[in-house]
Amino acid sequence: MSTQSTPSILFTHSSAQRGFRLLELPPDLAELLASNDPPTLQLKSSTQSQTAPSSSSTTTPVPDHVNLCTPTKTYSIRQVQSSNSLHILTPSTGGAVRKHDLSIVGEGTAEEEGEEDVDMDRALNVTGTVTSIAKCGSTLELHMPPEGFSAAGFLSAAVRVFGEGVEWDGNGDGDADMQGDEDGTTRRILDELFADIPVSQAQCESGWAEMCGFVIPPRSGESLTSPVSSHCWRPTAGKKLQVWKMIVDGAVLQGIDLGKQFLVRDLWRSVLDDDGNEPFPRPLFEAVVRRIRESGDGAGGDLKWASIDKDGCVRWVGATYLEATAPSAGSAISESELLDAWRDQLPEAWRDDVSLSILPETCYMRPDPKTVCFATEADRQKAKKNLPTDDSAAAKKTRNWHELFKNQKRQKR
Amino acid sequence: MPSIPLHPRPSAPRDETHNPLPDLLQTPSGLALLELQGTINLPAQDASQPEDEPTESLELDPFSATYETPIGKLMFPDYSAQTPTDDIKWMKRAYLYVGKYQRMTGEVKKLPKPLAIIQRRQKESGVEGTGEELEVVEIVKYKLIFKNRPEPVNDA
């Protein structure tokens, strides 16, 4: 046969099989990995104990799933079985092949078996050897749900809630002096906290900032308690509103124009009472200021100067007010009541900006045409899931057979 | 649960073994993908050590514990090293001879999405590892695929 004269490559199977996994790369991730200085990725999984009881368990399909995180993006990993076997080949010297075995593949060797020194490559007309060092029956596929991943659910479940009834001893001892040291500790605590949140670092950071999460580092001399999440807090909506109210009142008293640049330290002093006592922890104050300040100031960085992003702030106050007063359909309030109360929360000059249309649509629901209430994360997910009503249509697009037939099975029963 | 780092580059040095595959299938690490319908049945590993050859295999291979079982031969009938890289007609045909009398016809295909080959990162000896670490050994963009049944060939 003519092809027998074309040089061929000996194909062998190595006894030293190695463990590999195959991961399918979406274009953006492939590009990231091919770049000159690719970042280290993280495989993150949530601890079951944290997600199971939280509201976020409704948003995540499996509690013990693993997500692949780049610094800014999160993908869920799904293992896809293949009926074909994928072998991973590597070039080999052919040195580990027993000549005795070669008669399986080649003519020629049988007769030349006596001559041990005959060049194997020439005898078989091969140009080299490749050997299979691994067999993979499945590949890992990456998926990014269209609505993306949110750290909020995981973070809320992981940290302590700062609301009414939380003891806070604000004896006014910490004024900016040991700030540098505390910032380092805070950073360390946050890094450790985010390591357990199965979404990317950037998404953790933005989720944390979004919920005005804050860290109360241990006092100097005290060591970190474990887990670090016991140092991490998120304020309730009511608490956030209270902080905001005090900021507004303090700014009026001290003549600080929130729309222009001001020294954050001055604003902090304005909320302290006459004896310098702190009404709430300073980290909470800073978290709120970060949340509503002009993002051009470089979020996350130094918080010496700030100015408030008026539009964003008005929106935030509205949403926070709604969350605090009408957290569910049962406690929905009328639209005019919301608008009035909302205006009252704002500095005089901003009152005219209030309108229901500036609230993001995902943030409120209308149980009936006249009233509004806050839409929780779970409500939002429900609303999203209702959009594609035909489940089987969505399933048909996937290559996963379990999902494809899951619905049919359910219907039959 | 702590997060597991996935390093974007392998820590181990490149394998310098001569790579006989067409350039298109060659990767920096030397790894390539071959997809096969069905499985390769191998003799039981411990039973295949013939009595009369132990010393020889020891000489041939420093890692005497590993050996390779020949399966067949790969052939790219339309490929030659002189083919210009933009000429990809040769990809349409590849043969895998299994044993002497069977041949599978396949082709070289570009993967719809590149595949990262991932392995557990080898711990440096002496350093007590704090946890598991993974690394991307290679990103492959092409695969050899043999999806048809073997056909008999007359070898003579």
Automatic annotation (TrEMBL), chain A:
Pfam families: Dcc1. Keywords: DNA replication. Residues 33-66, 383-413 are annotated as: Disordered. Residues 45-61 have a biased composition (Low complexity). InterPro entries: Dcc1 (IPR019128). Belongs to the DCC1 family. This is Sister chromatid cohesion protein Dcc1. It comes from Aspergillus keveii. The lineage of its organism: Eukaryota, Fungi, Dikarya, Ascomycota, Pezizomycotina.
UniProtKB/TrEMBL annotation, chain B:
Keywords: Cell cycle, DNA replication, DNA-binding, Nucleus. Belongs to the CTF8 family. It is found in: Nucleus. Residues 1-26, 40-63 are annotated as: Disordered. The keyword Transmembrane does not apply. The lineage of its organism: Eukaryota, Fungi, Dikarya, Ascomycota, Pezizomycotina. PANTHER family: CHROMOSOME TRANSMISSION FIDELITY FACTOR 8, CTF8, CHROMOSOME TRANSMISSION FIDELITY FACTOR 8 HOMOLOG (S. CEREVISIAE). The keyword Lipid biosynthesis does not apply. Residues 1-11 have a biased composition (Pro residues). This is Chromosome transmission fidelity protein 8. Residues 49-59 have a biased composition (Acidic residues). It comes from the Eukaryota. It holds the Pfam family Ctf8.
